Amino acid sequence: MTAFKTGVMLILISAALPFTYSYADDPYTAPPSGAEASSPPGLDKAWSLLSDYDKKPGNIMESIKIAERVSGADPDNVEAILFLSRAWLTYGYIEADTKDELIRAFENGMKEGERAVKLEPDNPDAHFFYAANLASLGDTKGLFNSLFMLPEVRRELETILRLDPNHPEGLAMNGALYYYLPGLLGGDLHISEIYLKRSLGVDPHLSSARLYLAANYIKQKKFDMAMEQFTLLVEDKKPSFYPDWKENRKYAIRMMRSIEGKARMEKAGRD
Fold it and tell me: Taking the model in full, what pTM does it have?
């Protein structure tokens, strides 16, 4: 998995749409207020399965099958279409085992995102999931395809923030893009930091944005500030999307240990 793909994954799977949380078995957090927000009939079970994707292999695909039945019965159900776009994206990063399977997942997610955009062109989530799958597809197919699709990804991100300047995932994805792109293509750590801070200002529990901000500080060699962000992530009691937070928390702990290990080695070298 390339760096850009890894970065896209951390942002994209965490997008905020209604779903049913499952927190009962974890001591670190409790269900946020309003977590039981209702979905259209038929989608409740799909959301429950997707929010528990970390607990049982096959949950993501089962949620897709349920949502496809809902969408088949009601082709204009935008929430079902957005669910499918998100679920295919998640399937690609979490369960797909081969490049062909990745491509199929992201192509399906992109098509569903495009359907949502056509039905609701002013829906920022529709543009977000279309862009997310598009970027992931381009990256999976290789550098040339990724660069070829970059202008369209940027246009979609601009559209998201025009429709909703406080869209936390749109802000975070902009931050991720500026973080990963080389300077010749417009990458800029300062601009990345601004977008990520704006994202966390809207949703301080979006673990992917927190993780990116820490990574940004590491690139800037601001290790104390990176450690602060990792700590906030690890100790978060109300993550925006629990399964993603669990994965991001594991990564944050590994990075904290790495920074601490390097600090000890440098201190030993000075002594």
Answer: 0.82
